[in-house]
Design goal:
- Strands 6, 7, 8, 33, 34 and 35 form a 6-stranded antiparallel sheet that branches. Strands 15, 16, 17, 18 and 19 form a 5-stranded antiparallel sheet that branches.
- The chain folds into 3 domains: 96 residues, Potassium Channel Kv1.1, Chain A (2-Layer Sandwich); 114 residues, Alpha Horseshoe (Serine Threonine Protein Phosphatase 5, Tetratricopeptide repeat), CATH 1.25.40.420; 319 residues, 6 Propeller (Neuraminidase).
- By secondary structure, the protein is α+β, with helices and mostly antiparallel strands.
- The protein has 17 helices and 35 strands.
- The protein is globular.
- The N and C termini lie far apart (77 Å).
- α6 packs parallel to α8 and α7 packs antiparallel against α8.
Length: 594
């Protein structure tokens, strides 16, 4: 017997309470034995003609539905036999088994019926378990069916997973018979998503055509309400002409009017499948931007595109870029800008300004960050100079259009370099010898295990991938990985094939195409006056080794727009005015290796 003593003391008596864990577990087992033996049963539940003798007390304890039935003035409370409507007998057997044993058996073929039964009988655990089970089993072959079910019952976790699966596999899903069974509202919600993995907008149009033609007489009148969700501004003039000539459009004059009107829209974002993940760097001399994806061999240079004077940048999970601009006029207020993908320009984000904290100044002892945690933006200001420091933070409320102060963090150890980033539902503030985790749900900080980097310099760069956080030291000798679930750090292999090369400035970690990369500039110690050479390495987890991607950048000095994460998905056709540098880089690289 496991006992947990609990003390309570007043002036006269000391009381002590004990809890018998074996009794709690044994009680349910005894109740199950009584049910199997048919002893002390005082009510019969009838489902589809099948009779189930039960105990009113047990049913009332398990379900608010039964408790209300047996303790109110309802006629069922006085009857020996109660007929239950709207339940499948097989599902009710499973429900009854759970009530008397605490064990629930779920399978894909019956989870929807089981959820409906649990929903009717107000069994929260069964309902939530069925929801989680459905979310875990979302696949191409099940996503449409589960999506329709989840929408009827407002099962948000299942809706989210289904919509993500449909978007990720839109071409395959849209060609299935199940896709044609969607309602018009379900269809428009899906084709409105930015996350559709399609290379061309014609794919979305073809899916709509297939859906309408599946039941042409019943659905053709819906076409004008569906068309506004197709992004005609992403189509070529030839594609738009072909669509205007399509029999479905010619048959309904209202459709062609909608297409011509929507074609003039210029602020519609590209679909996710049309974009390419790119690392953004800035030329220290001119401020021009370099967009690069060495895995795909893409390097594009352009003017700074009106990039704001950055105090903090957030490259968010919904593929947006937010820039907090420095207080240029010394007003104590900082403005937020957002990247307009379609217009290829940074615009006012339409958010209230951020007030600087009292005493906050610019300088090496101050660090500023803009971090997104589950679609909420946080402005982090940290005084990390000598002695004790302070981390202060504000979060943005979209509903109130206000920046609200969060719990502050007192630092007892400080260094000149720090990082603030999100991983999962938490925000982390990291230094070489200290680390803290902020929990938004509790508005509080907790100390975690620090990386304890051995370099004489503190690290500057850190990045999150999945449930892990990676950081490295100034010389790229020691790279560490932190498991957020176990609160443990492990060493990774450092830079091995350096030869005479040494790092000139801080290395920069970034995640591209779900792989860990590092960018750093080097010089050759064996050559006098050797110029800077930028290297890009990708980490091979299975081999615990870094592989050189042989990416040769122009002879300029670059810095990342944000020291923690400057990777965004960009629609390259919008950058037609930019100079594509692939050819010139390839030529230079060939000469260097000849």
């Amino acid at each position: 017997m496991a006992a947990a003593p609990q003390d309570s003391e007043d002036s006269a008596v000391r009381l002590r309470s004990y809890q018998d864990e074996s009794y709690l577990h044994g009680f349910l087992g005894t109740v199950g034995d009584l049910q199997k033996a048919g002893v002390l049963q005082d009510v019969v539940l009838e489902v589809e003609g099948r009779r189930f003798p039960c105990h009113r007390l047990v049913l009332s304890a398990a379900s608010p539905y039964f408790r209300a039935m047996f303790t109110s003035d309802m006629t069922e409370s006085r009857h020996k036999t109660v007929v239950l409507q709207g339940l499948d007998v097989a599902m009710f057997q499973d429900i009854l088994s759970y009530i008397y044993s605490g064990t629930l058996h779920v399978s894909l073929d019956k989870v929807q019926s089981l959820y409906q039964a649990a929903n009717l009988l107000q069994l929260d655990y069964v309902r939530d378990t069925c929801g989680s089970y459905m979310a875990m089993n979302v696949e191409c072959c099940t996503c449409v069916d589960l999506y329709k079910f989840a929408e009827v019952f407002s099962v948000d976790i299942v809706l989210k997973h289904c919509l993500q699966c449909i978007c990720n596999h839109f071409v395959k899903v849209a060609s299935s018979e199940e896709f044609c069974s969607l309602s018009v509202n379900q269809l428009t919600k899906i084709i409105s998503c930015d996350e559709l993995d399609v290379k061309e907008e014609t794919t979305v149009w073809e899916a709509v055509v297939r859906w309408v033609q599946h039941s042409r007489e019943d659905r053709l009148h819906h076409l004008p309400s569906i068309l506004p969700h197709i992004r005609f501004n992403l189509l070529t003039s030839d594609d738009k002409t072909a669509i205007l000539e399509h029999p479905l459009v010619r048959e309904d004059p209202g459709s062609s009017k909608v297409i011509r009107k929507r074609s003039k829209k210029r602020n519609l974002k590209p679909r996710l499948g049309m974009t390419t993940e790119m690392l953004l760097l800035s030329d220290m001399g001119t401020g021009d931007l370099l967009y690069m994806n060495p895995q795909k061999g893409k390097y594009i240079s352009s003017e700074d595109d009106g990039y704001p004077d950055c105090a903090g940048a957030a490259f968010t999970s919904d593929h947006n870029i937010y820039i907090l601009e420095h207080d240029r006029e010394d007003t104590g207020q900082m403005s937020m800008f957002k990247y307009n993908h379609a217009g290829n320009v940074y615009e006012d984000a339409g958010m209230s300004t951020v007030s600087k904290f009292k005493g906050e100044t610019s300088g090496p002892e101050w660090s500023q960050f803009l971090v997104e945690v589950y679609e909420i933006l946080y402005y982090v200001s940290a005084n990390v100079g000598e002695g004790s420091g302070l981390v202060r933070m504000k979060k943005y409320s979209r509903q109130k259009d206000q920046w609200q102060e969060c719990s502050q963090l007192q630092l007892h150890r400080t260094c000149h370099r720090s990082a603030a980033l999100s991983c999962g539902p938490y925000l982390y503030f990291i230094m070489s010898s200290a680390m803290y985790r902020y929990d938004p749900s509790q508005n509080c900080w907790h100390e975690r295990t620090p990386p304890n980097l051995e370099s004489r310099f503190s690290f500057l760069t850190a990045v999150a991938m999945g449930t892990e956080i990676f950081c490295t030291d100034s010389d790229f000798n020691q790279t560490m990985v932190y498991d957020t679930e176990s609160d443990q750090w492990k060493k990774l292999q450092g830079w091995q094939d350096r030869g005479n090369l040494r790092t000139r400035n801080w290395p920069y970690l970034f995640v591209l195409e779900n792989q860990l990369h590092v960018l750093f500039d080097t010089y050759d110690t064996a050559k006098e006056g050797s110029s800077t050479k930028y290297l890009v390495y990708v980490y091979d987890r299975s081999a615990d080794a870094w592989r050189d991607l042989k990416a040769t950048l122009p002879d300029k000095e670059y810095y990342a727009l944000d020291n923690l994460s400057s990777v965004a998905r960009l629609y390259l056709p919008f950058r037609k005015g930019a100079q594509n540098l692939i050819t010139s880089y390839a030529i230079r690289q060939d000469k260097s290796t000849a």
